[in-house]
From TrEMBL, chain A:
InterPro entries: Spore_V_R, SpoVR-like_C, SpoVR_N, Ycgb-like. Residues 447-500 form the SpoVR-like C-terminal domain. Residues 16-442 form the SpoVR protein-like N-terminal domain. Pfam families: SpoVR, SpoVR_C. This is SpoVR family protein. PANTHER family: STAGE V SPORULATION PROTEIN R. NCBIfam families: PRK11767.1 (NF008737). The lineage of its organism: Bacteria, Pseudomonadati, Pseudomonadota, Alphaproteobacteria, Hyphomicrobiales. It comes from the Bacteria. Coiled coil: none annotated.
Automatic annotation (TrEMBL), chain B:
Transmembrane segments: none annotated. Residues 63-72 have a biased composition (Basic and acidic residues). Residues 34-108 are annotated as: Disordered. It comes from Bosea thiooxidans. InterPro entries: UPF0229 (IPR006698). Belongs to the UPF0229 family. This is UPF0229 protein ARD30_14805. Pfam families: DUF444.
Amino acid sequence: MPKHAPRSDLLFSGSDWNFQTLSRTCDAIETIAKEQLHLDVYPVQMEIISSEQMLDAYSSIGMPLMYRHWSFGKHFLYQQLLYRKAGRGLAYELVINSNPCIVYLMEENTMALQALVTAHAAFGHNHFFKNNYLFQQWTDAGAILGYLDFAKSFIARCEERHGDAAVESILDAAHALMEQGVFRYRRPPKLSSEKQREGLRERLEYEERSYNDLWRTLPRTASDGKSDETHDSIAIRKKALNLPEENILYFLEKNSLILEPWQREILRIVRVIAQYFYPQRQTKVMNEGCATFVHYTIMHALFDRGRISEGTMLEVLRNHSNVVFQPAFDDPRFSGINPYALGLDMMQDIQRIATAPTAEDRDWFPEFAGTGDWRATLLDAWANHRDESFIRQYLSPALIRKWRMFLLSDTAEESFYNVASIHNERGYEKIRAALAQSYDIGTNYSDIQIVDVDLLGQRHLRLQHKVTDGVALENDNCDATLRHIQTLWGYEVSLEGVDAQSGAALYERSTRQMSE
Amino acid sequence: MPIFIDRRLNPKDKSLGNRQRFLRRVRTELKRSVQDQIRSGKIADADGEHSVSMPIKGTSEPSFRDAKDSGHRQYVLPGNKHFTPGDKLAKPNQGGGSGSSPGLQPSEDDFRFVLSREEVLDLFFEDLELPDMVKLNLKEILAVKPRRAGFSVSGSPTNINIARTMRNSHGRRIALRRPKREEVEAIIAELAGLKPDGADGAVRQRIAWLRTELDRLERRRRVIAFVDPVDIRFNRFDPQPLPNANAVMFCLMDVSGSMGEREKDLAKRFFVLLHLFLKRRYNRTDIVFIRHTHQAQEVDEDSFFYSTQSGGTVVSTALEEMHRIIRERYPSREWNIYAAQASDGDNLATDSEHCLALMDSEIMRLCQYFAYVEIIDERESEIFGSTDNGTSLWRAYRTVKDRWPNFDMSRIAKAADIYPVFRQLFTKQPTVPRD
């Protein structure tokens, strides 16, 4: 008599979930994640939410707490419309890079989906957040929720004191510059703890209270007042202000002459949030690939151990293949390369190369081909790469062939695209380099820096745009953004376009010329 | 073992504040859109949700963005079928939205969204200059009154039904044999009467027994509460919608050539406002449209607002038509009759007397309320605004106004002038008999 039928090993049966099955499944997944994949994760906090709450979370860029701004309302309406028209399903989960790692599960999900989501977000993403060097270096998972809480209440208090309109205009301007509000090379100052922020606020309040206009009227020292500037003094001035500076928001926060303390603090909040999301934007393929690889491996392991039923596995696989679907370029559904698909394929390719390499693989990846230890290779890749370097390092010819990738070269003036390379011996390197390049944020966003400002004279703020490959800025957007900078700076702002190679001036736009 | 938190019961609409900020930002655009819809839609539709298109102005979020049509760039695309290096592919037409160039996102700026009834009414009310009380009244959907409906086990402390609670408590105490105070007191009294020292064995035994018994009883009294949470009953109240009767609203309008686009638009707002008011107060509101030139006719809403007729102007024909319809279909015993008349004041010279007679003898007796607006040019408003002089119809109606308290009239040149016509109607509101 089979006393313990094989069914009894199942973590759950049927599609309904409850907290027992959730927690049992999570424990089983954790065991596999730690034993089989050697993942290292933050403690997990699972939160069950309804679909409306998921929509809410969408509109506040996925954070559980956010200050109020009309643009979030606009995004909410847009998402709601997509959802209502069933044009797009909601994400099954949302995960926040915090410690403990917060994972949102939707109540509408079936148990099979909850298991998939747990493996994907609570272990895949979580491991990536904790171990990737970019996240370690640029974000502070422990402090972000506390900071957002502070940001939300600070901005609410500003709205109370200074009026919604005043706060809105600062936020509008700051949002326009979010792209230019991150440190790309320098390590950002650490998020200060609650106490330090409290101190900062007290200091701001003290400054406000004790501000005395008399100080401004004191005669300047001799060295300040020189009007005839030589090249030397320009150099000194630039050095004093740390110019050129590409973090425009930071520069305005520190040096703008017209901002009040609370306005500077708002700029700082926007800047900190932009900085927090900066690593995520550089690791879309890796992050999603890591999570997808993890859930795929874990769900298979669960199935192999008889912990989930065939029906569950079928549902999991159906959802999995929806997620990693990659239409070809001429498919009407094509909208760029699916990061889930590319990430997963590359990671599975690494697994293949480590365990069953071909001669070609040995040629291309001598470091790890045939070592058999794909776990170590993947853990290392997850920890030490971003999308650009990951693709440059690991995209194999086999995968290029599998995807049938080709390189298209597009020059605006010509009426046709040029096929530059295809998946053949001569093309692999070029395709790999170009794909890697396309994930490099540094080359994808225009290089705009503050180069000079004459604080004592006209206070004219000069920005420089290094034009690469002749890619110009959209005029309307550019003018509107310059006007936003002027709101924060208070005086004339101009942007000069300079060719990156030749250094030749291409164009100049300034707020003064716009107002004329 | 992860931590689980159930957030489903947390308040929804976390982004309501964002939505309000957004609507405020695009207020003027939305207002125009809503008013266009009210102008072109049916009167009864004003009171509901409206779908509006995303206003472009004021909602763009600029940033430094690369121009898509400049410079040189490279794309890596999947799914090569037969291309070899050097092949040339024709570019799709500009703006064709073809999938072959990456980075094409669906535009966020081109979509429609739904405004709730509240938001629509807010926008509609904006330049009507209604007092806040009136706005609130109009937005309220149903008048309800709490009515006793039995008992419940939960509720607010002020609603505790003490008699019912104590009855439950008493029953429970009997059932669980909670020791009475008298029993305890009897033992204490007996204990006090017995002297432990110098007594014989029986007495000592009795004392020991009494002590344990006292202990037991007191413990039992502590365990079985006098009033337990399970005993508590609350009075339950059900919101009961107030009984409402039916109302019919007559819209009378002069449609002769002199009523132009602007006049009709103002008239429509006037009718919409009256309809909102009636809809709030009555279960069922019928609307009857009567247009007139030198003859009157009952028509549907579309032809009421959008077709013009040529002819003279004889107002009394409309009043007669209205009277006929009331007699035939809306007996005043069963219906609350409201009438709103809009006109530019023209009338056949001899007809005004006839109107006056009709109003006095028949119509005002039947009507709950009769509102008349005379739509005038903005320039004329300076001249006519305050005087009682005016057209013969105006003078005739002046007399009606003096005799009948439920008649109101006004000259309107802009939207803000409409409300005063209804002032009496709305101030009467709080004291409407509730039967």
